[in-house]
Specification:
With 605 residues, the protein is of the alpha+beta class. The protein contains 16 helices and 24 strands. The chain binds aspartic acid.
Length: 605
Amino acid sequence: MRRTNTCGELRSSDLGKKVCLQGWVRFSRDHGGVAFIDLADRYGITQIVFDPEDLPEGTDVARISEIMKSFTRESVVSVDGIVRKRVEGTEDGRNPTGEVEVLITDAELLNKSVTPPFELGDQKEGVLPDEDIRMRYRYLDLRRSEMVQTMQFRSKLVHLARQYLDENGFLEIETPVLGKSTPEGARDYVVPSRVHPGTFYALPQSPQLFKQMLMVASMDRYYQVARCFRDEDSRKDRQPEFTQLDLEMSFVDMKDLQDMMEGMVSYIWKGLYGQDLVTPFPHIAYRDAMERFGSDKPDMRYGLEFTKLTDVVKDAPYKIFQNILAEGGIVAGMNLKAEIAGNKVGRNDVDRYINYAKKVGLGGLTWMRCVDGKLESNIVKYFTPEILENIKTTMGVEEGDLLFIIAGPWKATYEGGGALRKKIAEDLDLVPNDVFQFFWMDECPMFEIDPVSGKYDSFHHPFVLPQNDLDDDYVGGACFDLCLNGNELGSGSLRIHNADLQKAVFHKLGLDDERIEENFGFFVEALSYGAPPHGGIAIGIDRLCAILLNKDTIREVIAFPKNKRATSLLDGSPSKVADDKLEELQIITLAGDMDFDFEDIEESE
Ligand code: ASP
C-alpha cells in the first residue's frame, strides 16, 4: 500500500476515486456494524468507513474486519478505499474534508499504539491535560491539530524571514555552539572539555562576538537562526535554550537597521496574514516610555498613562512625598477616567491595588477621587486647596475620576507603576487583544548605575556604540529595542568598532586590562584589524510566535521545551553522568545524591 493522499486533502471533486490513506486512528465509533473512524495526520482528518454491506463484490470482509479490530486509538494504519459522499445531514462543515468519506476496501495495521495517556482530539479550551503530561508525551501532544498549526506557523515565519534576508543579500552563517562565555548578563551553561581537563566551553548566550567578527571578516550582511542558552530563573517567556533571529550589517546607521527590520517584519506579516503592516513603526524614547507607561517595553494599546506631579506637589506638607523628593525621587499620577475605569474601581478594589502596589515594589499607593468637583481621600488634608486644584488641572481630572499616585525612586517607582498599570488594564479588560502594535524603544542610556554599589553596568551590553564622551554625566547608547504589545521582541545597536573605545567601555564597566585581555583579548584584537562600522539586532523567534498566536507561554511554540524547572520531562535531562565519564573529564561533583526540591519554584512574569 502506498499513500495517495493526505488526510486533509479529499473533497467532493474526488468522489469515486480509489485512494490509499495512512494516518492515526483518532476516534472511532460503531453504528450497527458500520465502523466510522477519524483518520488523522498533520494535514487534517478524513472520515473512513468500514461498511461490510457496501463493499465491492469479492472483498474478503472477514479478513478486513479482523484487521480493523486491531485499529486502537492512535495506532497508525493504512487503508485503501473509495471516496464517496457522506450521507446527507452527516456532513461536517467545520472540516474541509467534511463532505466526503472513504469506504474502506482494504486495511493494514502499520503500528499499534498502546493506550495514549490523554485524549488527542481537539480539546475545548481549558480541558487540556496537565502540562507535565503533555511534556512527558510531547510527541503525542504535538499530534494535536493546535500544536501542528503552531509548528506550521513557526516554520512559515522562519522561512519568510530567511527568504527576505536572502533576497537582501544576507549570508546565513553558523557560529560555534562551543565557545567562550559572552557577557550577555546571564549565567552560562558550561561544557567540560575532556581534551583540556579543568577547562570549559560555554554555550552561547548569543552569537554577539562572532557576528561582529564576521563583519571584521568582510561578510557585510550576516544572519542566523541561532540557538542561544541562558541559565536564568524560569519565566513565562524564557527558556534555558531559545531561538533568536540574529543578524548583523556593516556600514549602516540605526535607521538602516530599523528599516531592514521593518521590511522583514512587514514581509513576514504579508506572508502570514496577506496584509500590509503600517511602517515606519513609531518610536518612543526610553525615558518617555518609563515616565508615561512605567515600562521600557510599554503596551501602548491602552491609556492609563502617568503624568509627572513632582513639581505640583513639591510644596505640599505631606511628609512622605517630602522625604521622597528630598532623596531625588519622583511623584507621578495615573488618572482612571470615570467612564473608562474610575466608576468600576470601588473602595475594595482600591485596597486590592494598594496591596498589589506593595508586591510590585512600590512603597505605597496614594489615591484620590473627584467627588462633587473636589478631590477626596483620607490624605487630602495634607494638601492645600491650591495644590489639589493644580493636581486636578495637571491630571485633567473630572467628576468621578480616580487618581492613583505613585512616589519613590525614579526607576523602581515607574517600574512598579507599570506593573500596576498592566494589572488594572487586565482587570478592566482594557487591552485590545486583536491589535498588534510594533514600535521602537530608543534613545537609551549606555550604562545603568547600581544605586547601592554605584557601579556601572551596561544598559544593553558592552559592545554598544556610545553616543557621546564616556566621561560625560550622561552617556547615551546607540541601542534600541523592537517591542510588540508590551513585550520586547529583540534588541539591537550600532557597535563599537574601535579597539581603544571598546577597551575604554570595559574600563568604565570596571574591567582591568588583565580581565579584558583574558575575556575579550581575541575580540579587541579583531577590532584592531580594520573593523568596519557595523550594527545588528536579534529578534526572539519563540516570543514573536507566542505573541502572534496569543499563547500564554513560549513553551507552547517550542516543539520540545523544558518545563518551569528547566527540566525536560521527555528525556529526563538534565541527568547524572556515569562516574567513568566524569572521571574522564576529571570532574568531581559536590551535589552527590542530593535531591533538590523544586516544587516551590514560582514562575515570574
Ligand atoms: N546579542 C544581543 C542579544 O542577544 C542582540 C544584539 O545586540 O544583536 O540581546
